[in-house]
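Quarterly update from the structural biology core.
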Amino acid sequence: MGKIVVNPQKIDEVLERGTIVEILPTKKEFREALLSGRKMRFYIGFDATSPTLHLSHAKNFILMEKFRKLGHEVIILFGDFTARIGDPSGRGSARKQLSREEVVQNVLKWKKLIKPLMDFGAKENPPKIKYNHQWLSKLNSEDLINLAGNFTVQQMLVRDMFQKRLKEERPIYLHEFLYPLMQGYDSVAMKVDVEVCGTDQIFNALAGRTLLKKITGKDKYVVAVTLMENPKTGELMSKSKGTGVFLDASAEDMYGQVMSQSDEMIEILFVNNTYLSLNEIKELMKLSNPRDAKMRLAFEITKIFYGLKGAERAQEHFIRVIQKKQIPDKVTEFRVDESEMDIVLLLFKTGLAKSKGEARRLVRQKAVKIDGQPAVEEKKVLVSDKGFILQRGSRRFIRILRKR
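Predicted structure, tokenized:
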């Protein structure tokens, strides 16, 4: 059994950083539990509803690693069963239900993405990965009825998204009431002491607290973390909407995605997604040009996932390609049979546009360049042996060549 860290300063560094926004029943009780020297079992759950993750997810893994380093048991739970139900949290309609095969494939990708954030190879007290299909798939009709008997319909309808749908006369599906029961039962199955969750998951986490008390007599703490919303617009990073900084991006794209974030997100990302001290962050936020602080932010985040050399390469790429508008040293090649091509078709074939409609919009918005000059939709593009550089936006380049 590893040693439990009870140093008040180290514990407060975790609690006061700004990632945690609420602790139930109270922050005081939770802090006292951390100081007691008792080893606790922490868990955080993720439904693999998308093949990728973004920085708002990453900060949760970073936090869990901090609790692990304090000596506590940490479980990363992949909701390979609950993902198929679909949590209604924050949505005006029911989520699309996924097949088990889709969820399993997403989980495999997620496991690769989170490796830089947690020490799964630790010899002592490594983080554990569990899957709730292991116990939820074994529940029978009698089990579900017994679980449901712990809650009233009125308790379920308290959820804000259900209230919104009722006002808008939108449907609420019966299976959506099952989600809090399933997530709640995770706490029972794993006998946890602490659940870490986003603020949008507090309802589900408290359902777990209720079930844990009624079924086992045990209590648990709920540690709610920020969702990292833009303080001006309220916009969140979203898997389903494709907005944010994604963990499967290349080093260059990750650096560029961070640089594309609005200035009001700089401090939020520093606090939640880097290992810099709060004093270092405070000094960086005093810089006269926000771009300088953002470049340091992009470097620190990219370094976590790609190491020092990867971050240096990404920064050099950004300075050369984005700031100085030069062509990257390495450009993917795409060869065609034709001597001349329609620009819309070329964008679609190269994958720079997902559809011909998107390709047309990009050209009309002057987001497409050929050797540095804006493309013209009506004009065919000549393809010579020397080829040309086809560019979408400021970061995506492909060299177009004739087939030999």
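Confidence is low (pLDDT under 50) at residues 90-95.
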